[in-house]
Amino acid sequence: MKLEGFSHPRSIEEALAVLAGAPGEARPLAGGTAVVPMADRRARVLVDLSRAGLDTVVLEGDTLRLGATATLDAVARGKAVTDAGLDALVDAAGAAASRRLRRQITLGGNLVGLYPWSDPVPALVVLGAVVRVRSAAGQRDVPIDDFVARHPSKVLQPGELVTEIRVPRAAARTGSAFLKFARSAVDYALCGAAARLRLDGDVVREARVAVGALRPLPMRLAAAEQALVGKAPDPATLVAAAAAGAAEAEVSADFRASVEYRREVCGVLVRRVLETAARRAAGRSA
Amino acid sequence: MKLELTINGVPRALDVAPDALLLDVLRDVAGCKSVKRGCEAGDCGACTVLVDGRPLASCMLLAGQVAGRSITTVEGLGTPEHPHPLMTALVEAGAVQCGFCIPGVILSAKALLDENPNPTAADVREALDGHLCRCTGYVKQIEAVLAAAAVLRAGKGGAR
Q1: Interface of A with B in 90-129 (CB under 8 A)
Q2: What is the DSSP code (8-state) at residue A233?
Q3: Strands A203-212, A219-220: pairing kind
């Protein structure tokens, strides 16, 4: 499709009206790092969302509200994100690409594209994020697990936009972490791992573990989670949980790494994020 | 398509193709040849320009995205006769050989110093993240940015 021009809506309502008015021809554009290099931008009009007031990063009560066009740099450095105790998101948003690209890549664009190598997505999965979707007709909230499992391209109907990612503030005695491994500082991850642990006394009450970049979609590691709940997060438990996670992970090979190599890296990264998350959880008393 | 924007302080109205990259518009329409085409994938930093003061990769932006915005390239910072303190410091530190990466380095350093006039070496290192240099290495560039920061703090470098 031949690109003819741009629309620069000044509000979300205006953006939704433009999209509704040209179905199949108007396409939303966030940071542009995915769309710009394409030979065919698959749009007659690109709807530039950068001035639509969707770049909020604010903690409201117990919910961190992240506008869809908040950049990864703004998320990684956002005081509200740190105040909400969401360390895995700080880690992940700050780990993607280079600082220059993090100023351009948006959280919403990264989530909707659901790139296999995404750093933020596994973090959003363990943090229990909720994706707010709006159209000219109304809005709905989709839990991140559903949003990912059904795939954004199926979840989002024509004329719908992700406007906000909402993440619950970390509860007391809860810690989270994200780590990636890549061939160079700016290469895509060949494995990413995120974990959130909630402690009760000396034992893990709740565990969420997710990995990315091992296959087209991120994956929760249920066996790793089950190996943690009800146990003290001591080194032997964390090693056993990481081993269980690496064994259950679905892993694909590509030119970056073999299945065997990725699985090995996965076990190491899961152990390390569990260690960090457990340390952070123990440090968050109130 | 008509594109209105400000380039180095001058309001411009340019005729551009809707799918033109900002990189190509700056080089071929606006004549800012300091903006370099390197990797065309946002990785090398040679095409960095300031968009409303933020250093971004002009190869990863369609020109239409920056309608109404203010763009700064190295042409807007100084001239051979009246160089910006960052330019002087990079030359004096021996941080410039082929020069291909240097316009981008200058602009990211400028953005850093505008935000933080008294950066640490670690701050400079982070600001120059993603600026690939294949000649001199990075240590002299970091020294030069710190030296330029000191010059600017002392007010010796002229007002920029």
Answers
A1: 97-101, 103-104
A2: -
A3: antiparallel
Q: Do residues A218 and A264 share a domain? A: yes
Is residue A97 domain-shared with residue A141, that is, in the same domain?
yes
> What's the CATH number where A221 sits?
3.30.390.50
- Please list the residues that pair with A191 across neighbouring strands: A181
The average confidence (pLDDT) of chain A is: 96
d(CA A225, CA A241): 7
Q: Is the pLDDT of residue B136 over 90?
A: no
Determine which helix (DSSP H) or strand (DSSP E) holds A109, and give its type and residue range: helix A107-113
Number of domains in chain A: 3
What average pLDDT does this structure show over A197-222?
97
Q: Which residues of B touch A186 (CB under 8 A)?
A: 43, 130
Choosing among 3.40.190.10, 3.10.20.30, 3.40.920.10, 3.60.10.10, the CATH entry for B2-76 is: 3.10.20.30
Residue type at B76 in one-letter notation: G
Q: Which of B43, B54, B68 sits opposite A186 (nearest CB)?
A: B43
